[in-house]
Design a protein that fits this description.
With about 210 residues, the chain is of the alpha/beta class. It is about 25% helix and about 20% strand. This is L-lactate dehydrogenase complex protein LldG. It comes from Saccharopolyspora dendranthemae. Pfam families: LUD_dom.
């Protein structure tokens, strides 16, 4: 049997099997499996996935965030910190006596002298351990999260989404977005992991029950 004959024979069987069936519109196909994957502890799943990317992650009480930021900055050896406009004022008030706070509008040359940036986030993705910034209040422009060597990111528990589609539904498509999955790293050259090439070498994530 030739290839063309075999192809026609197979297609003929398919047509015969489908004969008499009604074609169902795609909109009628149930797709709940793509939008809901229940988890007993979605925030815990997010924390585990973040840690898998060699980032440090801690769950803290809402009123303990300023002290947790200070402890994290201190442990990383950071002295010059940048907190973008729109971040909770309590953070700056708790840090200004011990650390030098850099002007959020600092230019690139000044950013190179910043030890750590402290930001909020837009969304956290539990299934991938990814943090998404849309550079709204408390997140700063993209440069401030790429130039400093340390990024301390505070994610609210209610910002954690199940998966990428769920996260995207929370984002404004016209805003700039930055996806962060662990510290910046590459293995392009001889498959050797090098960190801090395209962004912060160190990522600390604080997860809190913030509004």
């Amino acid at each position: 049997m030739s290839a063309d004959s075999a192809r026609e024979a197979v297609l003929g069987r398919v047509r015969e099997a489908l004969r008499g069936t009604e074609r169902q519109p795609l909109s009628a196909v149930p797709r709940d499996y793509r939008t809901s994957r229940p988890a007993d502890d979605l925030v815990g799943l997010f924390c585990e996935a973040v840690a898998d990317y060699k980032a440090t992650v801690d769950r803290v009480a809402g009123d303990a965030v300023p002290s947790a930021i200070a402890t994290t900055a201190r442990a990383s050896g950071a002295r010059r910190l940048l907190i973008p406009d729109g971040a909770p004022r309590a953070w700056s008030e708790a840090l200004r006596e011990e650390f030098e706070l850099v002007d959020p509008a600092a230019g690139t040359e000044a950013l190179e002298q910043v030890d750590a940036v402290i930001t909020t986030a837009a969304v956290g993705i539990a299934s991938t351990g990814t943090i998404v910034l849309d550079h709204g209040p408390g997140q700063g422009r993209r440069a401030v999260t790429l130039v400093p060597d340390v990024h301390i990111c505070v994610v609210a528990e209610n910002q954690v989404a199940d998966d990428v589609p769920a996260a995207m539904s929370r984002l404004d498509p016209v805003r700039p977005t930055t996806f962060i999955s662990g510290p910046s790293a590459t293995s392009d050259i001889e498959l050797k992991r090098v960190e801090g090439v395209h962004g912060p070498r160190t990522l600390h994530v604080l997860v809190a029950p913030m509004p």
